[in-house]
TrEMBL record:
The keyword Isomerase does not apply. Its EC number is 6.1.1.12. InterPro entries: Aa-tRNA-synt_II, aa-tRNA-synth_II, aa-tRNA-synth_II/BPL/LPL, Asp-tRNA_synthase_2, Asp/Asn-tRNA-synth_IIb, NA-bd_OB-fold, NA-bd_OB_tRNA. Pfam families: tRNA-synt_2, tRNA_anti-codon. Gene3D superfamilies: Bira Bifunctional Protein, Domain 2, Nucleic acid-binding proteins. PANTHER family: ASPARTATE--TRNA LIGASE, CYTOPLASMIC, ASPARTYL-TRNA SYNTHETASE. This is Aspartate--tRNA ligase, cytoplasmic. Residues 228-423 form the Aminoacyl-transfer RNA synthetases class-II family profile domain. GO terms for cellular component: aminoacyl-tRNA synthetase multienzyme complex; cytosol. Residues 1-58 are annotated as: Disordered.
Amino acid sequence: MSTDASNIPEGETGTEEKKLSKKELNKLAKQMKKAELKKNSAQGQAENQAAEEEEDVSEGKYGSYGLIQSSERKTINFTLVNKLDESFDGKEVWIRGRLHTSRIKGKTCFVVIRQQISTIQVAAFAGKDNVSKQMIKFIEKVSKESIVDVAGIIKKPHEKIASCTQQDVELHLQQFFIVSAAEPRLPLQIEDASRAADESSELSVVNLDTRLDNRVLDLRTATNQGIFKIQAGICEEFRNALTKAGFLEIHTPKIISAASEGGANVFEVTYFKRMAYLAQSPQLYKQMAIAGDFGKVFTIGSVFRAEDSNTHRHMTEFIGLDLEMAFNFHYHEVVETIGELLIGIFKHLQKNYNDEIETVRRQYPSEPFIFNEKPLILHFAEGVKLLREAGIQQGDEDDLSTANEKMLGKIVREKYQTDFYIF
């Protein structure tokens, strides 16, 4: 006896699909997602394999030099990064620097190369300018702080590159070689060590002890590069200005038989079975030179003070810039010479080291230093009068307190538009 299925009421057929539970639906969804990921992964591996098998149009234009042992001498003319500007537009250049940062996504590559305080953006696009995907993948694996040689064409960007010092140009990559690879993991990041301390910021900064433990890395920051260049600029102008003024540079002993200044402690050292001391000052030897008819002398050198002080103004070792001169009739001749010398140093720094000064100020904010063309010389009585006019008590013959000295500086800045004056 057969049964006609068309005569069975709806909902009572024996072939009805079983309804899935919520747990079973979730399990099925997970299985489908896993299968999709596996498919995508297989597809990605296939694409990577295809890229590797694809002809490398950049072959021979990237890689690592390996260990340089002076076995060959390359004739490459490198250009300094700080010299690159719009006048180089369209020109091919080579630069050597450290890989500061890199941003690579797919076929697009942006790298920042740092050379002391100067930085420039390097751009590369797979499929253009004979840049291959293999070349982009190679650059992606290069660790920060590695020294690299980069060649390319200088071009003007559509917009200024705010993150680099060379904002009006960028380098379109043609060749990329590793000179010396850095460790992938560094004890500190240059970006962190260059960041201004801001309590409201959540970005990390580097503590002093970490900086000192890794001083080589810390010295690479643009701020430290700028500080050392400014120091060199000060010594340069100090030497040049005094030499032009008829001064003679002398070199004085740094190990002496007795303390040269009674008010400062000395470091004791053994000197061939007897005691000697590190020089606190070249004062004695400068005076000897003047008495020996040298007329005008100066020296630049280390000074040692064994002062156990907890203030930031005291240092046990520093570089002293000292001058000594005989005057004809009045000690103001010396004062005026010192004033003109310092103004000359300020002008020299402002003209030749402005980039370094601005670099330091970005990490350690401060107001611009202002000075007059001619040094301002205030007599003590004039300073006392200025303080009294501001409502501050100051005796005619009393020494200035630290607070009154700071206040006088503010008054002079407002009245005479200068941060430098001789008092």
